[in-house]
Amino acid sequence: MAKLGVVTIGQSPRDDVVPDLAALLPPGARIVEAGALDPLSGAEIAALAPSGDPGDEELASRLRDGTEVALSHRRLLPHLHAALERVRDAGAERALLLCTGSFPELRAPLPTLTAEQLLTGTVQALAAGRTLLVVCPLPSQRAALARRWSTAAARVEVAAASPYGALEDFAAVAAELRGRLSPGEDAIGLLDCVGYDLAHRQVLADALGLPVLVPRLAMGHLLAQVV
Length: 227
Prior knowledge:
globular, Rossmann fold, four-stranded parallel β-sheet, 22% strand
């Protein structure tokens, strides 16, 4: 069976994500991991902090010790390309990028699926004509995500809560998001980061009383068809 390269924009292994993906893949599926930040020192990672420049998207990921890190999209790109080269050199025949951000300028050295590609069609199909309630990691991402998903849903509301923080803090944001719904409004929830897990989905689903899309599950089900 083909080997799948799983690449995070943070550090590998992503033992908080990959087991959920692997459980949905066919028996015998082989995974090799790499992270864009794997070979970097603390100082080198700090140098990838968001620039604050207009148009330079701020990204969130996780270090190996569980620490959350904010990254500049532009500064990250060469390190992401290098991580894709490492999984290719380790024998991967295709790769999955564990980030729901958009990377149109990335020239991958092997066939690469992104979480953003896999998620977009699913959201467009399920959110059409409905309100989409989005949770993202960083407050700075809210405006861009509201614009991004505005073509997929009748109305979009975005709130920020880290997937790497306390679940109680996430629950408070979920409750606040519930307050933006009108009684009986047709809506669906979206956790717009691979870092959100099944516990986050349950908290948000309970708060909203609605179905919630979680990227790692959507990716796993789709990947199972091609690996």
